[in-house]
Design a protein that fits this description.
Number of strands: 4
Shape: globular
Strand order of the largest sheet: 1-2
Protein name: tyrosine--tRNA ligase
Number of domains: 3
Distance between the termini: 52 Å
Catalytic activity: tRNA(Tyr) + L-tyrosine + ATP = L-tyrosyl-tRNA(Tyr) + AMP + diphosphate + H(+)
Radius of gyration: 25 Å
Structural class: mainly alpha
CATH architecture of the largest domain: 3-Layer(aba) Sandwich
Helix content: 40-55%
InterPro entries: aa-tRNA-synth_Ic, Rossmann-like_a/b/a_fold, S4_RNA-bd_sf, Tyr-tRNA-ligase, Tyr-tRNA-ligase_bac-type
CATH class of the largest domain: Alpha Beta
Keywords: Aminoacyl-tRNA synthetase, ATP-binding, Ligase, Nucleotide-binding, Protein biosynthesis, RNA-binding
CATH superfamily of the largest domain: HUPs
Strand content: under 5%
Largest sheet: 2 strands, parallel
CATH topology of the largest domain: Rossmann fold
Family: Belongs to the class-I aminoacyl-tRNA synthetase family.
Length: 329
Amino acid sequence: MQRASTSASSSSPGSAAAATNPLPSSAAPLERPELDVATLERNTVGISQTIKQILGRSLNSNLEGFNVVILNDYDWWKEFSLLEFLKNVGKYARVGSVIAKESVRKRLESEQGMSYTELTYQLLQGYDFLYLFQHEGVNVEGAYGLTFPLLLKSDGTKFGKSEDGAIWLSPAMLSPYKLYQYFFTVPDADVIRFLKILTFLDIEEIAALEGEMKKPGYVPNTTQRRLAEEVTRFVHGEEGLTEALKATEALRPGSETKLDWKTIEGIAEGVPSCSLAYDSVLNLSLVDLSVSSSLFESKSAARRLLKQGGLYLNNNRVDSENKRIRKQI
């Protein structure tokens, strides 16, 4: 919308988060846990900052004067009394329409059922759009009904929505390295469609990348690498992309790339890892360290992999079981 020279407004759901959004029917049929005030405020600030960082980064010389307005709907809900809500919002909602939605119907039919708090979520969200129209001139949602299809992977599953693999925009929730790796490993069946949906590359350039994938000698994941670079740069900026590429290079066997602590923590989020006290590691043999860190269940297993050339320390292959962890200046 910014690229089309349209002012953009975003509503941060401070009040709607105090209620809960009914989970879709494919998700776990449980009411989302209630958040305390401090957590709500922290999440609201975090979401607002993420939106500002991403959309602010996308502004260019052609968009001068166009700013993103971020509002917290709690600001207009906090003075609403229950009687006002019933009179000014509730009376316009038809119960039949509310419970006809599949997400609501599935919850009502479940053993856990649905609380009234959850049921009012649609009314809170609907009034938000009315308020934005009346006070901010926001009319896209109501006037045009602008919608987007659910982003699905080629296997029919939702994109980035699994409980153990959610794709977060905030670097505090998902490091630039892990975001990069997610898109670097998407299947060939998804990569072209994701390039069209998630990047601003020209359609001609995407078509050229698709053509390269069909040619003999194509290096696997070349197109995925471009997708990962574009998305990571858009979300985290050039600095975030550099961090992700540096971490990726550091994990390559034989790499001599040195990492700062922040980047190491980002890598640790995406690979099995553990933390040990410095004194407990110093002068310990690599075989013993492999067992104490739970990398192997036994020393014999560690020695076996070492002899096969598969054990590395700082990305350098270790060929002696007498190798110890030494302090480096």
